[in-house]
Amino acid sequence: MTLHEIRKLLDAEVLIGEDQLGMEVNTAFVADLMSDVLAFATAGSLLITGLTNPQVVRTADVLDIAAIIMGRGKRPSQETFQLAEEVNIPILTTKYILFEIAGRLYARGIRGCIEKVGSK
Amino acid sequence: MDLESIVKALNLKVRSGEDKLKAEIRGGYTGDLLSDVMANSNEGDVWITRQVHQNIVAVASLKEHAGIILVHGSEPAKDTLEKAVKGGVPIMVSDLPGFEVIGRLYALMNKTG
Amino acid sequence: MGGNFDNAGEVSSNIKTVLKQIGLPKDVIRKAALVAYESEINIVSYARKGMIRLRVVPDSIMIEAIDEGQGIPDIEQAMQPGFSTANQKIREMGFGAGMGLCNIKSFSDVFHISSEVGKGTHLRMIIRASSAVLNS
Question: Which domains, from first to last, does chain A contain?
């Protein structure tokens, strides 16, 4: 799926990365624990989270995450926004809860970025 | 749809609350921040999380969740399990990442309504 | 940098940039950035001050995290997945779930930790460029 299609599917607002909506993604990771993301998420995946602090962007940057989707209508803090602009990571925000976001994306063919623990 | 059919379909392992698996599921919620789950989840939700701390049992019973699914091969901490057994809160575990568990669950729930 | 969450991760981003310029394999850079980042979060969360040192030799990267702080009384316990002394603030940042040191260890080829209560903690990690290339 492209970020463009994802925006439509989730009725999301693109806060950063309007110019990167053509980007194609196939995998995703959902979590509020950044250490979890660091341990398991793979490069090029979507990061779906309810956190909005700058550490979300740092974590995404460290892992070469494709884009961040903030659920529950959460919006990035000022610092988060600036940092994301700096490192050029798209941020989308949607009112849907994380469960709904993951469910919809899965139904459209997006898969978890690892099959099982230990298989990365 | 009840917990039992989810346990079967997703091949979950049940760690506590075996007698509560007939509970009807009304929805799903995922989150690892207890304050968020307290504020936004609903009664009858099945809660998918990575938190294994004993406070998850308190949150699940206060919010009257149908049960908790721990993902990523995580297991409830010792005191978490004790509390869950005592409080009759179903805790189930999966080796799959949260995204996969949610995706499959969501598909099941939409199929059966 | 102890206690200051605003810039946590900046050092790791810099490390990542430097390693990219050197032209190391992506997988190696990712591991190094991750290890540095979790170390940085630990320093910000638990120490008064600290530093991250990066050394690159042809076949490996060494990262050291040295802090002045409370130290770790029981290292074995601290290394257990899920063990944490984190406060609410740290948890709200998405850390403090007792995985930091485990992550650091599992993404390093060599991991060494020493700590003195009341003085501080010293982590030394080596990431081999060659093994990562072979495995990827």
Answer: 3-112 (3.40.1390.20)
